[in-house]
């Protein structure tokens, strides 16, 4: 069974930073393109960043380019998202996902990121 467990969210002031983690199991993580996806209240789910299995291709949503950094450790079956220079509009529940399953229902519970002063 595919499992994705996100962590690392929290409440942070504008301009602050967080590092999200996602531990994967139940599939061959090192062979999968993985993504971070977010959903804010009343808004559609949107991808934020994705990364090919070997890290050779990385893409970011325009609004987070230069502020967020996606990375992965295939030996630990873990996906990361470094969030810097956070803005109130980044407030959302963040999920990791297998890119092939996007925009389907996320498998994990997500981690809440709230940016507020």
Describe the overall structure.
The chain is an all-beta fold. It is built from no helices and ten strands. The protein is globular. The strands form two sheets. Strands 2-10-9-4-5-6 form a six-stranded mixed beta sheet, with no helix packed on it. It has a four-stranded antiparallel beta sheet with strand order 1-3-8-7, with no helix packed on it. It starts with a strand and ends with a strand.
Structural class: mainly beta
Strand order of the largest sheet: 2-10-9-4-5-6
Order of helices and strands: EEEEEEEEEE
Helical segment tally? 0
Please report which band the strand proportion falls in: under 5%, 5-15%, 15-25%, 25-35%, 35-45% or over 45%.
over 45%
Radius of gyration, taken over Cα atoms and rounded to an integer in Å: 13 Å
Biggest beta sheet summary: 6 strands, mixed
Low-confidence stretches: none
Shape: globular
**Mean pLDDT figure:** 96
What separation lies between the terminal Cα atoms? 40 Å
User: Residue share in helices?
Assistant: under 10%
The beta-strand count equals 10
């Amino acid at each position: 069974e595919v499992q994705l467990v996100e962590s690392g969210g929290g409440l942070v002031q504008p301009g602050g930073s967080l590092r999200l983690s996602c531990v994967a199991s139940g599939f061959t993580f090192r062979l999968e393109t993985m993504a971070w996806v977010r959903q804010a209240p009343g808004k559609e789910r949107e991808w934020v960043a994705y990364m090919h299995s070997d890290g050779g291709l990385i893409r970011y949503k325009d609004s987070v380019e230069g502020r967020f950094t996606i990375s992965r450790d295939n030996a630990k079956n873990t996906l990361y998202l470094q969030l810097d220079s956070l803005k109130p509009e980044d407030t959302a529940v963040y999920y990791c996902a297998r890119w092939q399953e996007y925009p389907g229902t996320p498998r994990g519970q997500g981690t809440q990121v709230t940016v507020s002063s």
